[in-house]
Amino acid sequence: MRLAAVDWLFIAWYFVLSIGIGLYYSKRAGRSISEYFLSGRSLPWWLLGTSMVATTFSSDTPLAVAGIVIKDGVAGNWLWWNFLFGGALTILFFAHLWRRAEVVTEVEFIDIRYSGRAARFLRGFKALYLGIPVSCITFGWVTLAMVKIIRVIFGTSGTTALAVCLGLTVFYTTLSGLWGVVATDMLLFGVAMAGSIILSVVSVEKAGGVAALVAAVKAAGAGAGKDTLAVFPPLGRALPLAFFVALFVQWWAVYYPGAEPGGGGWIAQRMLAGKDARHAVKGTLWFAVAHYVIRPWPWILTALAALVVLPGIAGAPPGEMEAAYPRMIAFLPKGIAGIVVASLFAAFMSTIESVVNLSGSFLLNDFYRPFIRKNASEKHYVAASRLLVLIVSLAGAGFSYVLGSVRMGWQLIMELSAGIGLVLLLRWYWWRINAWSEIAALSASAATAVFLKAIPANGLVRGLGAALARAGFEVDAWGVGILVTVTVTTAVWLAVTFLTKPDDPQKLLAFYKKVRPGGFWGPVAKLNGRAYGLQAAPFAGWGLAVLMIVLLLLGVGKVVFMEWAAGAAYLAAGAVAALLLSKVIAKIDWEGRG
Amino acid sequence: MALGFWGVGLPLVLFAIVFCRTAAERAAVGLPAAVFGLVGALIYRAKE
Predict the structure, then answer these.
(1) Does B32 touch chain A (CB under 8 A)?
(2) What does the pLDDT read at residue A275?
(3) Greatest CA span in chain A, whole angstroms?
(4) Burial letters B20-34, b for 16+ CB under 10 A, else e
(5) Rounded to whole angstroms, how far apart are CA atoms A69 and A290?
(6) Which of A173, A193, A169, A177 is nearest to A50 (CA)?
(7) N or C: where does chain B have the smaller number of CB atoms within 10 Å of the terminal CB?
(8) Each residue's pLDDT tens digit, A212-249
(9) Cβ atoms of residues A575 and A593 within 8 Å
(10) pLDDT digit string (tens) for A455-506?
């Protein structure tokens, strides 16, 4: 495919605007570490929430969703929609606690919550683990996905544009810190969404309009015995174990970047950067709505149109199914193609800038400052941060070259941490969790994952698989593997927790006074002379948030397929849930001073 | 930031007029253009 001069002109203009915004904030970011990594803790909810969703919207996300829809139909999206249960939990139970904790990074949480040498080891280990291998894999994964897109669109001629894009993104991110990241994220998310919407409209037109598209997809599905348009898996057949695991286990057990149980990574960074606890809560709520309700339907429509206009795509290998998304760009007219290509660059840039800023924060705040150079000036730490961000960017770019199969590497990272979610949730609400609990969970999860990789057909897996099949599930290896890992990990970290000493009472007391969590803090609350109880309202809020997101998601889906009456009914019900949720949110004492 | 939004919205308006062939295409490009204009205006007002 060849872009016209006007397309390139728009792409170049878009680069100028993004970089201009990024550089505008470089002076402000240089004042201190708090400004560089947390924007001086002054972000309003709409800015921090949009930045969360922009970061989670990567260049490969539309491709992945397109691949899911072509292979498993719309219902296949529950593989990632399930995270909305955990997302709602983060909004109601954790966002305000993160903001009250007033740490710089999620890793620094270890320093205020746990005591002793185990805590020091855990902090240093997690800083290096999240700051180097996890960041490099994410960087390499996103960059390789962009290379794939570029190759589909241009052949090899676009790699120069990609190198320039990468260089410029790293340049302004290094200088402008989180200020530049969140400010450009606003524009990048807008451009990325505009491109998705434009591509979906043109794709549906190419497929003959909505009615013709629906008829053609239904006819093709009927031939293969499946309902591609169904939003839920069909009832009356064996329930796929993967669906069950996604719906009931994955969202609280698996550490997935952007959907960490209880919040973590760039989500925690933005909650920490909020003006106050209320802004952190509202921003995370806006992220969930934008993430699950606004983003997916244009990608789903484009994928369904690809099923109609690209012959043979339904039986193609997974890689080709995903490549169907950029292939649809060929149907765009001159001028419009440039906007869509820029939107893919926008998705790419918004993720890269956040990943390098976040990894820089781990390496500076949780490794360099506590272990290498204590008590230096803020100017020194900002300079060191900029250098670390640059080094991580170069390492990530280098990693993209040597990484053959990103998918395998990334799956390994997920599998290694598949059972640690529960300890990350409970550490806020149960005084007895200590650094050893986290160390045991990380070790047991990794050891179980390695064992399952080395001996996949062991007695445990076979026995559980057979029992689940007898119970009526359609068993798959991935689902069984997750269940085994979660069970083993939970048993190990619980045993280790009770076999090791509790944290230093003074440390726990300081944490309890500062963060003011409810839950199971008996002895610490007694020491404090006052217990902070769990309120009932967040539980109701969680149910309402889940209900609202699901209803709005279904409502938008009905509207895009022009089922106006059903769409209006779902949207109206979603609006009622939103209204009730806003009343619950207004009622909760987010600062916990009452 | 407001300038950035207007800077994207304005070319989109021009593209909708010059390059779009059908009403659906014009709506698909015009609507985001309007949103960019509006968000730019909101950010400008918030800063003032």
Answers:
(1) yes
(2) 94
(3) 71
(4) beeeebbebbbbbbe
(5) 20
(6) A193
(7) C
(8) 999 999 988 887 778 889 988 776 566 678 888 888 99
(9) no
(10) 888 888 888 999 999 988 888 888 898 899 999 999 999 999 999 999 999 9
Q: Residue type for A86, please?
A: G
Provide the 3-class DSSP secondary structure of residue B45: helix
Q: What share of chain B is helix, strand, coil (3-state, %, to 5)?
A: 90, 0, 10
pLDDT of residue A268: 95
Q: Which of A156-170, A308-322, A341-355, A382-396 has the lowest mean pLDDT?
A: A156-170
Predicted TM-score (pTM) above 0.80: yes
**What is the rounded CA–CA span in Å between residue A502 and residue A517?**
18
In sequence order, the 6+-apart residues with CB closer than 8 A to the CB of A237 are A474
Are the C-beta atoms of A195 and A343 separated by less than 8 Å?
yes
3-state SS string for A121-149: HHHHHHHHHHHHHHHHHHHHHHHHHHHHH
Query: 3-state DSSP: chain A helix, strand, coil percent, rounded to 5?
Result: 75, 0, 20
Average pLDDT of A254-272? 90
User: Inter-chain contact B8–A205, Cβ cutoff 8 Å?
Assistant: no
- CB count within 10 Å of CB A565 equals 8
C-beta atoms of B28 and A201 within 8 A: yes
Q: How far apart are CA A474 and CA A458, in angstroms?
A: 19
Residues from chain B contacting residue A346 (CB–CB below 8 Å): none
Q: Does B44 touch chain A (CB under 8 A)?
A: no
Facing residue for B20 by CB, picked from A17, A191, A336: A336
The answer to whether A57 and A347 are in contact (CB under 8 A) is yes
Give the span between the Cα atoms of A267 and A259, in whole angstroms. 8
Cα separation, A444 vs A423, in Å, equals: 12
Provide the residue type at A560 as one letter: V
Q: Which of A201, A203, A340 to mutate to test the interface with B (most CBs of B within 10 A)?
A: A201
SS3 A430: strand
Distance CA A330, CA A333 (A): 8
Partners of residue B35 in chain A, C-beta under 8 Å: 190, 194
* B1 contacts on A by Cβ (under 8 Å): 21, 183, 186-187
Q: Which helix (H) or strand (E) holds A328?
A: none
